[in-house]
Design a protein that fits this description.
By secondary structure, the protein is of the alpha+beta class. The chain folds into 2 domains: about 80 residues, Arc Repressor Mutant, subunit A, CATH 1.10.10; about 55 residues, no CATH class. About 55% of the residues lie in helices and about 15% in strands. The chain has 6 helices and 7 strands; from the N terminus they run ααβααββαβββαβ. The strands form 2 sheets. A 4-stranded antiparallel beta sheet has the order 6-5-4-7, covered by helices on one side. Strands 1-3-2 form a 3-stranded antiparallel beta sheet. Strand 4 and strand 5 form a beta hairpin. The longest helix is centred in the middle third of the chain and has 34 residues. The mean pLDDT is about 80.
């Protein structure tokens, strides 16, 4: 196998899922300002016609190749470095979008699983959220906290408690 074909596969497979050795063979055939139809590509690469059409469709969709409107259709690589740069820009944009989406997911997940840090003031009979410094008024949370507090109070009845409670 030609070393350049393997290098092309390595380069593109990092950026395009499914870019295999046959994609690299087709790309290599078209690299030298060649314009080839499917019949010519099949003769040069020995790839079956049905697979060749799939590969060409993939590569045109990813904007690596240009397809002519002639009959039979021909394929060529127009400005390969510019096309590769565009592929990298597209991938970078997708990564940044995914990063933003992941941050949103992490933020909502973190909110769902954060611990509520509280202080119970026995004299004023209030429960204070330590992060916001506000008195808790959510009856469900207060009920659960009171149960935890009562259990703790039975074990050590003469101390003031600072407890952590998970939502």
């Amino acid at each position: 196998m030609d070393e350049n074909v393997l290098r092309i596969k390595e380069i593109f497979s990092k950026h395009l899922h499914g870019f295999g050795i046959n994609h690299a063979r087709v790309y290599h055939c078209l690299l030298g300002d060649e314009v080839m139809c499917v019949k010519d590509l099949q003769r040069e690469t020995s790839i079956e016609k049905c697979l060749l059409y799939k590969i060409l469709k993939d590569m045109v969709r990813e904007n690596l190749l240009t397809k002519t409107r002639t009959t039979p259709a021909a394929y060529f690589i127009e400005k390969p470095i510019l096309k590769f740069n565009n592929l990298i820009k597209k991938q970078t944009k997708l990564f940044l979008q995914d990063k933003t989406e992941l941050k949103k997911i992490m933020k909502t997940t973190a909110t769902e699983t954060t611990k509520l840090r509280i202080t119970i003031d026995l004299e004023k009979k209030t429960i204070i959220d330590q992060d916001t410094r506000k008195i808790l008024e959510n009856k469900t949370e207060i009920g659960e906290i009171k149960k935890l507090f009562e259990e703790a109070q039975k074990q050590l009845p003469e101390k003031k408690y600072a407890m952590a409670y998970a939502r």
